[in-house]
Amino acid sequence: MPETTRPVAVALLVAAAAVSAGEPPLADPTRPPAYTAPPAAAGAKGRAFRLSAVFLGPGRPRAVINGRTVRVGEQVDGARVIAIERHRVVLARNGGRLTLRLVRTRGLRPRPMQREGEGS
Fold first, then answer.
1. Which residues have C-beta within 8 Å of that of residue 55, sequence separation ≥ 6?
2. Using one digit for the tens of pLDDT, what is the confidence trace for 58-81?
3. Three-class secondary structure assignment of the chain
4. 37, 52 in Cβ contact below 8 A?
5. Strand partners, 101
6. What is the pLDDT of residue 11?
7. Beta bridge partner(s), residue 28
8. In the chain, is it the N or the C terminus that has fewer CB atoms within a 10 Å radius of its CB?
9. Cα–Cα distances in Å, from 12 out to 4, 24, 108?
């Protein structure tokens, strides 16, 4: 690089670094949208109930609450599961009922499964 262009190149690099230092970093376009959990209901010992998943299909429905898979009639952290539905689970505790709901994530839709040889 010629001697006269070196100071100009250094000045441009310094200016570009100063301009980009004040801006927030670019978001990763391949990253899924952030998950926002619903406010959790307090469980036994002050622990919150968190509904992670519901499984419906052949057999008895199951739900994942606080990381544990449960069915209707079973207990989780001091509450009895009394109903498992598509987007919610109903618990009974201390004579009352508590409804846990799944949060629907925007932009994500289930796709029907394809059998081998169908589509591409």
1. 61, 62, 63, 64
2. 888 999 999 999 999 999 999 999
3. CCCCHHHHHHHHHHHHHHHHHCCCCCCCCCCCCCCCCCCCEECHHHCEECEEEEECCCCCCEEEECCEEEECCCEECCEEEEEECCCEEEEEECCEEEEEECCCCCCCCCCCCCCCCCCC
4. no
5. 88
6. 73
7. none
8. C
9. 14, 20, 43
